[in-house]
Amino acid sequence: MFGRIFGRTRFLFPLLLALFAVFLTGWMLVAAPLNHSAWLEAVSLQSQQQAPTSDPNTFHLLNGKLASLGWIVGRDCQRGLRAYLQTADTNPDAALVGTGWLDPTTGTFINGQNNNCMPGSLSMDNVVQLVHSKGGMAYFTVTMMTDGAPGSWTSQQQSDYIRRGTTDQSYIDNIVREVQRAHYDGVIMDLEAGLATYPNIQQLFATYNQRVWAALKPLHKWYGIALIHKLNDHDDYYSLNAFENWSLLARAADFIVVMAVDQSYFTPGPTVSIPWLKQLLAYTLRTMPTMLPRIIWELPLYGATWHLEGGNWVFDGGVNYADGVNAVQQIPLSQIDRGASDLNDTTCAHLVYTDSSGVKHSMWYHTAKNLYYVISNFKQILAQVPQFGHSHLQIAVWYRATWEPSDVWPMLRDVLPN
Is the pTM of this model over 0.70? Predict the structure, then answer.
């Protein structure tokens, strides 16, 4: 019976609902005139929470012929600029790290103390100008130094900053002013140390991002959020990524950057691989499927090394392509474990060897063929996902500094057309 009644009124029902919404809105404005501005802000933030509806084919985050966004880091700016200029004709888009460091106690920005983009200055304005001169998009990366080094900020301080940013308009205004001052094309929020146990941190972080997004919209600036990789709600990296709720954050930005980097840490392995990307994609489809066409997948141009200590592998740090090639040439064949090594592995070249002191090492690094294999195969996987539609794969790389294999970009021209 209910189905028949609804069937007869299905055209009238939406009209009645719309009239009721108009009546309710007017009543609320009349009943609470003193809170008019607050109510309008609430409506604005609520509208931001709706999933993006524009055609992804007309949504251009990048201007280059090749859909690749490269980070340029202030402390390694000279190498970054050299690497950028080598490929600026095909992938001129860049995100900058070094001028958007946050002071969580004031909400203001600090230039990196080791920025070397300009002689006698810590500014990176010349990089923004260079990117624009090459026709690229320049993205302002908002981040905070929380790496545990002396003088760095704590997770508690970052979480306090996020909480204050949900109500203190000056925190939002600082971002807007810097974007306007340097003429950035957009912003990428890259906070990575929210405290997992901080009360209501997921909702606070989402609200903070909604406020930044709302402030940038009138300026027609793109807004994105960089997310630490997640395979499930409580994975091995929970202490780092717990403050990020992907479902909430998908409704707080124009686009998302998924950090598909650092797959292996506790034991030797690749920094990214196809099976791992499939797991990341599965979690993405579960938490923010409508955002899939608007994701930039951040991939590593580096590898990593480990050494064996007391029967356990200990992470040593990152290694770039040049370092990997040099190590292979310098290590005597007698020290190499040929059974555990494979320089022709499809995903990541790796070498296991024992040094002259008897310490066992494992080194993994990406060749051009490795990167081509990962990116081209991941593109094919995405093409089979209905939510991806007719979109194209967009990547970001961490970071540009002439350390990637130089022949990788020509190989990717047909894989990543923008």
Answer: yes
Helix (H) or strand (E) holding 373: helix 368-383
CA-closest candidate to residue 271, choices 279, 260, 285: 260
In which residue are the tokens 């920025």 written? 115
Helices (H) and strands (E) in the chain, counts: 14, 14
Close Cβ partners of 296 (under 8 Å, ≥ 6 residues apart): 61, 69, 224, 255, 256, 257, 258, 394, 395, 396
Q: What is the architecture of the domain spanning 65-301+366-412?
A: Alpha-Beta Barrel (3.20)
Buried-exposed string 1-20: b where 16+ CB fall within 10 A, e elsewhere: eeeeeeeeeeeeeeeeeeee
CA distance 218 to 333: 62
Span between the terminal Cα atoms of the chain, in Å:
53
Of 149, 162, 223, 150, the C-alpha closest to 196 is: 162
Quick count: other Cβ atoms within 10 Å of Cβ 114? 12
d(CA 20, CA 24): 6
The pLDDT tens digits along the chain (418 residues) read 222 222 333 333 343 344 444 444 444 443 444 333 343 344 344 434 444 544 545 578 999 999 999 999 999 999 999 999 999 999 999 999 999 999 999 999 999 999 999 999 999 999 999 999 999 999 999 999 999 999 999 999 999 999 999 999 999 999 999 999 999 999 999 999 999 999 999 999 999 999 999 999 999 999 999 999 999 999 999 999 999 999 999 999 999 999 999 999 999 999 999 999 999 999 999 999 999 999 999 999 999 999 999 999 999 999 999 999 999 999 999 999 999 999 999 999 999 999 999 999 999 999 999 999 999 999 999 999 999 999 999 999 999 998 889 899 999 999 999 9
- Tell me how crowded residue 238 is: count the other CB atoms within 10 A of its CB: 12
Can you tell me the distance from the alpha carbon of 269 to that of 234, in angstroms, rounded to the nearest whole number? 21
Domain residue ranges in the chain: 2-48, 65-301+366-412, 306-364
Q: How far apart are CA 156 and CA 6, in angstroms?
A: 53
Residues 6+ apart with CB under 8 A from 251: 48, 49, 50, 51, 206, 210
